[in-house]
Amino acid sequence: MISVPVFLSVLAAYIVKGMCGFANTLVFGTLAGFFTDNVNISPVDLLLGYPSNLFIAWSERKGIDLKVCVPLCILVILGSIPGAFFLKIGDARLIKILFGFVVVFLGVEMYFREKNSSVKKVSPFFMVIIGLLSGILSGLFGVGALLVAYVSRTTSNQTQFRANNCVVFTVENTFRLFLYLAAGILTKDAAKTAVCLLPAMFLGLGIGIFFQKRLPEQRAKLFVIALLIISGLSLILNNIVL
To answer: What is the Cα–Cα distance from 183 to 150, expressed in whole angstroms?
Structure first.
């Protein structure tokens, strides 16, 4: 039986997902973290996020740029392996705090870069670091905040941003699905919970897409930046207090 707080957590998470193409894990993970551990949250969110990423990637397919998403897919997959390993064997509290600081820094940097409104070329070295760190963070918690920070640098509009993010998320989700199964993280109980929560996911996604189509692009960018900063702070505060 799914409790009302968990149902509402998924609903809120996928309203955000529908609006900006990411951050469902950050919202769901933060809210569900009051009820259970990350090792129980990540596999459920993986199963819920998989169809939503497929849907958004397909609906925004005109914005897909293989030069952006293919290298990131490879790097994120490589990073997912140690991330899932850490999730399985130990307490990732300190890693969460560290990544929280990184996410806040990137969010603040994105805000000031947006104010300057100048597009800067991203170095290959930066892409490699962000890709690997994104994979580790995804393997641990399913969080793609660092990936979002990178894709925002290499795309010029919301269609491209949402499309390329969700293509990488879909590839990473596929890989992590098998990785979690092999590691024993994805269980029958997690699958049953995810199936019961599918109505909340689809309802939230529909509401989010409805609002996204009516939200000016500049406001959408600021919304994404705000989510990055808030999510990073939540990772820090939640794990310092616990």
So the answer is: 29
